[in-house]
Amino acid sequence: MKTITLNNGVKIPVVGLGTFRAKENEAYQAVAHALKAGYRHIDTAAIYRNEKEVGQAIKDSQIPREEIFVTSKLWNDDQGYEKAHLAFQKTLDELGFDYLDLYLIHWPKTYQKAADSWKALEELYHQGKIKAIGVSNFTFHHLEHLYETATVIPAVNQVEMHVGIQHEKLRAFCQEKNIYLEAYAPLMSHEIKNLLANETLQKVAASKSATIAQVALKYLVDLDVIILPKSTNPQRIEENIDLFNITFTSEEKALLKGLNNGRKYFPDPDNIAF
Ligand SMILES: NC(=O)c1ccc[n+]([C@@H]2O[C@H](COP(=O)([O-])OP(=O)(O)OC[C@H]3O[C@@H](n4cnc5c(N)ncnc54)[C@H](OP(=O)(O)O)[C@@H]3O)[C@@H](O)[C@H]2O)c1
């Protein structure tokens, strides 16, 4: 599996299995199958309520813990210095691990809460309990404010990203700040039917005997972002990692770039109601 080196030298596999909306048993089966299929990166979160099953599937795989990169996230209600410490310990206990590879602030709330939570994450990072720390759903102004008090630069920013939202400006900004972008909902999530119905993707896929999902995912990998496709279906889990032989001509790249229409399927981080 191809890896990317984060700003602190930690290596992260470029494709990770997403587990949002994977219920407990589904999550266990999906992670177990993904590890057999060659995945070494799993994305979960406290709010997904499947950390226990994710951790158990990893343990049962008998693959050494250090060969698997696992991300979890601090939920909104748990933001704040002390709460973040407690929430992290709960996540670690649920997973059954003694360290986590990557821990993210799931959504930005107030600047103060982000700064206080970040302080806790920095401490856990310095203690070696987390290999890398980052954020999710942060826009420019959230990052600028975090920078005012942060002593550790976020390693990643996990944001909604697919062919419809290509984040040209945020990518350039994060690149300049040495933050990797991770693409969540790379297949448009619950609206995957929109992705599958896209004629440009259909045309490009047909010309190279790849699937539409594979074309949409490989395009993101070629933009130098980490992708987190979710599937609980064994065949689609395998399909979503079988991308690395797909290449695009400059004409195809231009067509795929043209799909960037700004249509979001998740809330605007400045207007969340949760
Ligand atoms: N940080 C955040 O706020 C945040 C928000 C959302 C998501 N995430 C993370 O990002 C991951 C991915 O996002 P997501 O789960 O919302 O959506 P997604 O990965 O874009 O799409 C998942 C949907 O696509 C289907 N699918 C997967 N592979 C397919 C294929 N090859 N062909 C056809 N359909 C396919 C899945 O169904 P099957 O399972 O039936 O295959 C599921 O319905 C999440 O699981 C989570 O880990 C993070």
Describe this structure as you would to a colleague.
The protein is an alpha/beta fold and 274 residues long. The protein has a domain at 14-191 and 225-233: TIM Barrel. Helices cover 42% and strands 15% of the residues. It is built from 11 helices and 10 strands. The protein has helices at residues 24-37, 51-61, 81-95, 111-126, 140-149, 168-176, 192-196, 199-207, 212-222, 234-239, 250-257; strands spanning 3-5, 11-13, 17-18, 41-43, 69-74, 100-105, 130-136, 156-160, 180-184, 226-227. The protein has an 8-stranded parallel β-sheet. Strands 1-2 form a two-stranded antiparallel sheet. Strand 4, helix 2 and strand 5 form a beta-alpha-beta unit. Helix 1 (24-37) packs parallel to helix 2 (51-61), helix 4 (111-126) crosses helix 5 (140-149) and helix 8 (199-207) crosses helix 9. The two termini are 35 Å apart. NADP nicotinamide-adenine-dinucleotide phosphate binds at residues 18-20, 43, 106, 136-137, 158, 184-189, 192, 213, 228-233, 236, 239-240, 266.
